[in-house]
Amino acid sequence: MLPPAAQLTAQQQALQTRLLQFIQVHQHDETTAVFVLHGDAGSGKSAVLNAVFTTLQHQAHQPDSALAVLHNRLLVNHNEMLKIYWAVAAADPLLHKSDFQKPTPFINAATKQHRRYDVVFVDEAQLLLSQKDAFNHFDQANQLDALLPLAHVVVLVVDFNQVVKLKSLWTPAMLKQHLAGHQVESAELTHQLRMQDPAVSAWINAFVAGRLLPLPKPADYELRVFPDGAPLVAWVRAKEAEYGLARLIATTDFPFRVFGTRTWYVQAGSVRLPWDKINFTDRPWASRPETLGEVGSIYTIQGFDLNAAGVILGPSLDYDEATDRLTVDPSRFEDQTAFRRRPDLADDEAAKAAIIRHVANILLKRGRRALGIYAVNPRLRARLLALAQ
């Protein structure tokens, strides 16, 4: 799902050159230099990161290169995204599976070994833990502070609109505070590359911000609203047969438990479908044929491109007729691990509501060629159907 460097846009290629120059200039700095790459979901951030990392690993094997013999790692705190990078490594003889890791084992091992790497890349850096987490065997204050001493250069890919847990809550102000005293350069990717029509992306941006606008009628993108889950399921199966990589995904508004053998379900109108299960294989969830009968979540789809996404908006998202706006109710959001209380947050409810909006934004922007929507709450469903006319 990650395109080769030859397929990068002009904006991405210019950024790749700039990043490599930054690394060359700062590769021997004692105080860690940091490059921060911003961009919306689908703007091609991971593609640039992959291209730069692959170039760096290739040049590390060339004795006459200015970037020779560097020791580098790429980290991502998301199981399914890590599998995508492992697939990239399997296709390139100069890349290794061990080049790609999750932050916690990398931090713990490098800290124990007193080892400093040359360049550490962090994809989905907004998923770095911003507090201690015994469940993940991380006992330092936060993962960014723990990472900085472990590399001469750190490259962070950040989208604050994809923060999905309080324990990994990051804001622009927090990032600036933690990077104080470091040489910092930043850039932003502004083009929407995943979704093939910018009007659809703009409509989603308005929707998650609360504004419900008439649905655009793009010529090269299919955007539909469904009155029930059954036709949405049939539509996704038709898209899978037509061009592949079509899946059902939902906001984490339906009961589930991560561990155990019980099957948990998503109720979408007249249909009841099983949630995705823990994926112990090396293949990303959406690339496995058997998952066509499941419903994916942010835990299995974040960072992955689908051709068609059938999105089920759960009970936490509703509609206020008086204000004509989307409403968010954190008490109806089932992913309570995302809301594990933090004593350092003054306004938990605002942070919780923001997380739900982020989840909706991530899911609605998965489809490259088509997006189908079913809303569980009748008021929101009726309003969306009216806006589609």
Automatic annotation (TrEMBL):
Domain Schlafen group 3-like DNA/RNA helicase: from-to ranges: 33-376
Q: Which InterPro entries match?
A: P-loop_NTPase, SLFN_3-like_DNA/RNA_helicase
- Any matching Pfam family: SLFN-g3_helicase
Identification of the protein by name = DUF2075 domain-containing protein
Protein source organism:
Lacticaseibacillus suilingensis
